[in-house]
Amino acid sequence: xxxxxxxxxxxxxxxxxxxxxxxxxxxxxxxxxxxxxxxxxxxxxxxxxxxxxxxxxxxxxxxxxxxx
Length: 68
Known about the structure:
Blueprint: E1 3-10, E2 16-21, H1 32-51, E3 60-66
Antiparallel strand pairs: 1-2, 1-3
């Protein structure tokens, strides 16, 4: 896995949430180094979600995190 694609949106309860689009699926063999990259990528997405401000007409914002 080389990247996470994500969208940040406002949920029905008004809170911001992220949807991840990634090739990670069931049955993956992942090394400790790759797990650390995944964890760092998820932390970046969490930070971006907290920083995001959606305008009244914006439904979502998209982003990409490169893992390598």
